[in-house]
TrEMBL record:
This is Uncharacterized protein. GO terms for cellular component: outer membrane-bounded periplasmic space. The lineage of its organism: unclassified sequences, metagenomes, ecological metagenomes. GO terms for molecular function: thiamine binding; thiamine pyrophosphate binding. Keywords: Signal. InterPro entries: Ferric-bd, SBP. It holds the Pfam family SBP_bac_1.
Amino acid sequence: MKKLVALLVICSLIGFALYAQGAKATAPTDGPGGKLVIYTTNFDEEYNLIVGGFEEKYPNIKIEAITGGAGELKTRIKAEAQSPQADVMFGGLIYSDFVSMGDFFETYKAANNDAFPAAMQNTTGKLTNGTIQVVNLFVNKAEAKKLGVTITGYKDLLNPVLKGKIISADPGASSSAWNQLSTMLSSMGGYESKEAWDYLEALVKNLNGVMSSSSSGAYKGVFNGEYVVGITYESPCLTYIQDGYGDQVEIVYPVEGSNAITFASAIVKNAKNMDNAKLFMDWIASDEGQGLWATSTVRPANTNIPITNAVLTPTSQIKLSTRDNDYLAKNQQAILNRWKDLWAKHN
């Protein structure tokens, strides 16, 4: 009889455990549902960190994502304006995008907007700032050593031995490449100076036709040893350092001056999943979302959130050139056209 009772107790416990496990697998059944379609320029680690956190918070919302360069995704949003396919553009947006295509985005301010420093708040009504991007050069140490070159800044990219061994993304397709182009102009003499444009023409010659259609091509090409130097941006490069490859590659902040640019996200005009899109904007601006960025290789836009990743160099230790956002917003296309003319002239 005692054995029978014991057996019944064990069976009951097993049954309860299986029930609890099944309940856990299907829970929670409450909370927001539906789906959210994301267009994003973010590299894998950043996407997984932030979108993964959102999925944990809202497990019943199904995420559909399309990745691409900023130029490509903005073109899609314009083309799909009559029947939007995306709900949000996650990353890849800067102030000039508000000027050039603000009509394609919804007016919305995240719930935590006022917690940001004034300079980082959503002052356009449409762009929710998420991160700060610093531009840099990325160097393959072994390849640079073979050539006997030391890279400290933009001027070093004109060294003849580097011809065809430097890779940049297309500034017309990549937001980080556009930021590099505008930073070079600012750091090498000024947006309209002959000195700066003479430098760019010499650089185009030394690139020798090498250009990636996406920002990832620049840092991946350097890491894989295909190129000596990449003209790129900080966060994915730092990921290599963080993952233990600091003996193979290094980040160089140009001695002439780098730049720190705020990157934003926005809700697509007439998004089909508007409530979920607003939840996502609230998430990336929340202390929790910004705190996730602070643990990574990406700098959070809310500078009140302390950075906890030791691989990030304090911005106080990086020389930053002046950036005139209003000028760049008004003249971006003219600058790009002039760059394209130089490229066509020498390639």
